[in-house]
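This is your field. Please look over both lines of this record.
***
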Amino acid sequence: MEKLLSIIIPIDDWRSDDEKDLQAGVECLLNQNIPKEELELVFVVGQDDSKISDILQSYSNTYLNMVRVTDSDASSMVNTVSGKYALFYDFSNRWEEGALGEACRYMNQCAVPPSFFMCREIFQKKTSAKSTFRFLYKNGNHIVNVKEKPRSISVSLNNVIFLTEALKEGIKELSNGKKLQYGRELYLLSRMLMNNPNVGIISSAGFIYRNSERLSSQQSNAGMEYVRNLNILFRQLELLVSDEASQYYIWNVMLYVMKQYMEGADTPQTFTDEEQNAYLSLLREKLHRIPDDIIDSAPGTVQIQRMGLYAAKYGHDIFRNSMAEKSAVTWKGHRLVNLKHDAFRIYTLNVQGEMLCITGTIDAGTLNQEMKLTARDEIGKEWSAELHPYSKGDIKNRFDEVLLAGRWFRLLVPLHMAQTINFYLDINNSKIKIYPKLMGDTGLKHQYRYSYVEIAGWLIRYDSGALIAIPKTVLRLFKLHHNYLKELHRKKDAAGEADYRKKLRWSKKIRKLKLKNQIAFVTARSNDGLLPNIRNVYNRTTAEKVVFVHMMPYTDEQMERAIEAVYSSKVVVTDDYFYLFRKFGKKPGQKFVQLWHATGAFKKFGLDGTDLFPEVDRLYHKDYDLVSVSGENLREIYASAFGIEPEKVKAYGAPRTDEILQSQYKDERKKEILDKYPNLKEKQVILYAPTFRDSNGKDKHIFHPVMDFESLSHSLKRNQVFIICPHPVMQNRIPDREYHNIIQVDDFTTNEMMCIADLLVTDYSSVIFEYSLLNKPMVFYCYDYDEYNRDFYLDYEKDLPGKMFRNYGDLEQYICNGEFRDVATVQDFRNRYMSACDGKSGERLAHAVEELLEE
C-alpha cells in the first residue's frame, strides 16, 4: 500500500546527548496533521549501538507498520520507500506544527507535480547555516521554472520534499554510501532539475533550522579530497549545459556553490598551503569562464560574497585600484561596495557641549588605501572624522585574508541654530556623497524621513542621507511627532507605530517618577533570584530596597516593572550589562553601582573584548558611579573595559568570595555534597570546570572536549574521582556514557564543588580567581588554545597559576599520577589579583552603597 510521505532519518553520528533530540524530533513528525497510516518513518542506522537499537525498537513496537529500521546505503534504501513523497530529516532540526500536512495538501493539488518542493526556512540563533534558497515567499505557494528564472539551488536536503519517483531516478548516480555529501546532493538536485526544471515553492510550510553542527560534521571532507570532490561537481555540472538557458542556469548554480565556500560555510576550517592554493586555483579557473555581468547580477549575492568572488577571480589588486563613484566603490564598472545604507553605519549620536558627536563604522577600503570621511553643512563648511582601525569590521575570505579593512570613526560637528549635515567619502582621490545606515541606538530609522530623536535640547532627524539638527521647541517637537505618526500610518507600519508609542510612554513615565531614598537591586543574569555577588550586598544593606530580576528579552509588563524599580530609586546596583542603562541612562540625582559578576580579569570584556561596537558598549557603562574589583591591580583594567575614570573603580573585593573564605560555609558544603555523593568520601577529587565556546559558528550550549573518558576511567587510581562541573550555559551531557569514577554534577555550583576539590582542571574560566583563595593546585587543559578567539588580559602561558596542557595524554598522565603539591604560583596569583578578597567584601560594599544613598 502506497503511503503519502516517507521520512528518511539518517543516524550515523550518534552521541549520548542526542536521545532527547531524537525523541523530540520524532514527536515533531507525528504532530504534522498527517494520518499515521499515511506516514512512514525510515531510520537509516550507520553504526552498531545497543542504545540506538533499543530506542528504535520501542518506536517500532509503538507504531506498527509505520517505522522501519535499515542499514542500507542511500540508493538501495530510497528504492524501498513506499511514500508518494519523500523527505530527508535531520532529527536535530524541526518543522512547524502541521507544516508537512500543509505541504502535502498543496502538492496533491498540482496536476503535474515537479521533481521536488522547497519549503520556507526559518533560522534560529543556534545555527551557522546560511539562507540557501532565495525565492520570494510572499508570493505564496507556487511553481517556478528555474531555466526561465534562474535561482541559487539549496545545498540542504532537509527542507526539500521529493516526488519519490523522481528521487529514485535522480539518486541512481549517487550510490556511494549512506551519506549524501555536500556538493553531491547539490548535483543530485541540479541533475533532477535538468530533467524537469520546475520546482515547487511552499511558503506556508515552515522548516526550522535549529543546529547545523551535526550535518556539517557529516558532510565535511578534508584537504585535497575536498578540492577533488568540488572539481568533480563542477565538471559534472558543465556537462549538463545543452543550450544558452542551461548555461546561464549552471553558471548561477556554480556561483552559488562558490560563494558558500568563500564564506567557509559547512567546510573544513584548516587547509595546508598546498590545499589552499589548489582550492583557489580551482575557483579562479571556473570564475574566469563566467562573465562578470553574471557575477554582478547573481541572485541572492550579497556584498561580501560578490567581493570574495571578484578577489578570487582577479586578485586583491582590484580593491587597491578601485574608484569611489555613484555611492559605490567600483572597479572597471563593477560595483564592489555599496555605500548607500550598507558599508557606512552610524551607531551613536550624542551632544557634547555645543558639538554633535557621531560615531560609527566605514567598511570600504583596503589596508593600503587612503580614506577620508567628512561632514558638510548646508553652507559648504566641512569637518573631518577621526578614523581608527577596527578589526571587527574587516571583511575576510575563508582563509582570513582581509579584503576590505574595517574602520570606526568619531565625527564632531558644531551645532548652531539649524543645520543639515551630509556625509562624503574621499577614497583614491574620488569624493562621493554616502548614505548612512542608522543603527538602533541612534533612535532614528533611515527609511523614515520624520523619525527623530531628542538629545540635550536638540531635535535630530534623517532625510535623504543627511542629518538635520534643530533646537527643540514645543511646537517643533509636536510637528515631528505628528508627521512621524502620519508617516508610520501611511506606510501601514503598525508594529513601528506601537513601538514608537511605547517608547514615548516609557520616557514619560521615567520623567514623572519621583526618586525615593531606596536602593534598587537589578539583574539580567537570572530569572530565579539575585546571584551570589549582588545577593551578598543586598542581604547586608538595611536601607529601603526594591528588586527586579529577569533575563532579557522583556515583555512590556516586565519593562514597566523594570522602569518602576530603576527610575524610582536613588541608587541602582547591578552585576552585568543592564539594558535600561543603555536605553535611557540615568536621571539627575541617581547613582549607578556595578558589581561585575566575574571575579578578577581573565578574558577581555566590555570595550576591550565584546562584539559590540565600542561606543554602543560604552552606553551601558558611562553612568557608573562605583565599580568594585577584587584587587588593586585590576582598577585600570576595569576602568578601560567600562570606559570610565579609574577613580570610580574601587578595590572593595568580590562579595561572592566571602562565603568561600569562611570555614563554616566550606564545612557545610562538604557535608551536603558528601551526603548526596557518598562515594566521594576519602577520595582525591579532580574537578573539571571548563568554560563554553562560541567561536567559529559553534553552538556554545553544546560542549564535547577532546578527552578519552574510557581511557581516563581505566587510568584513574582507586582513590580518585573525576568530577565534571559544566558552565551553566552548557546543556548537554559531557561524558560519552556512564562511568563509576567520572561524574557530571549539575546540582551543585562550581564554587560549591571547590570545597571538596583537590585539583582544579579548567581552561579559560575565571573560576581560577575564586579557587586561588583556597590555596589549592590547579592546571589548565587548553587543547584548542590556537582556535579560542578571546584575548586575555594576562599573559596566558606565563601568568597562569599552574601547568598548561595542550595534549590530552599528558593531562591524563598528570592527573593519574596524583601528586598535586605546587601551590606557590597559586599564592602569588592570589596576591596579585585577589588582594581585596578577605571575607569582608560584602560588608564594605554595603557600607559604600548606603553612603551613596546618603549623598
